[in-house]
Amino acid sequence: MTKKYRVLFLSLAVVLAMSLLVVGCGGTDEPPVDTPDVADPTGDDVIMEPPAAVGEQVGFEIVGIEPGAGLMMATEEVLDVYGLEEWTLVESSSAAMAAALRRAYENQEPIIVTGWTPHWKFASFDLKYLDDPQGVYGGDEQVHTLVREGLEADEPSAFTVLDRFFWTPDDMAEVMVAIEEGSSEEQAAADWAAANQDTVNEWTEGVEEVDGNRIDLAFVAWDSEIASTNVVKYVLESIGYDVRMRQLEPAPMFQGVESGEADAMVAAWLPTTHESYMDRFGEGLVDLGPNLDGTRIGLVVPAYMDIDSIEDLR
Known about the structure:
alpha/beta, D-Maltodextrin-Binding Protein, domain 2, five-stranded antiparallel sheet, 19% strand, disordered N terminus, cell membrane, membrane, transport, Glycine/betaine ABC transporter, signal
């Protein structure tokens, strides 16, 4: 190669090398392009997904109680009024509902149940009602005592005790909690009566004792009604009655007292929960008025759930 061409070749090589050096050093005035963060497969910098909606958390299910209960019928209406077509109201029992609530609560899991107060679960767990802005569940209710026609003439002593029977939600809660903690229903009622003898005396003052006359009390197997019916049973037995308790579903309970197959019940939630049964059977029943004020029904969740209203279920 001649000297002239050798110099030209070296010059070209130098120019090419400098160009590569500029490119390799990022010689550009444009800012670097941002790239999105990528989750670290080691888990040290994982990008969290937003929490699932409450419906997804609970499988779009509300844990209910016995089919046909007024609370269940009201909840079916809630699903319709609030447009909750995806949701299912699961038929169960009051005992099964409480067991499901306990399991979820102990594991800090989400759950929605049909609930009412008084009930021992509010004393045992930190719970809250979901707001009901449409008012489907109504306001506070009362529990009424209903008896069959003719009871006052047939059994005036029992009629008087039933007519006077009245206690507070706190009284009822004491009996319910005692049963939940292991006392038998009968023992819990007897213990409450012994601790509240002045109240019991108000119900029985001046009442003539009887000798084994039979009285049938109908009740629905809700914890609240188990408590109240056992207390009334204990008091009636203390004045000589042979008391039989008859566990029934709500409709047969009302029908049984109306027909005279049972003598009385202290378990009518009015004006909302048992409204339909009063419409059907009320004309043949004697309403002695409320035996407890300040009850409530609705949808209940653990307080740790981030939800406050039925509208949040949409």
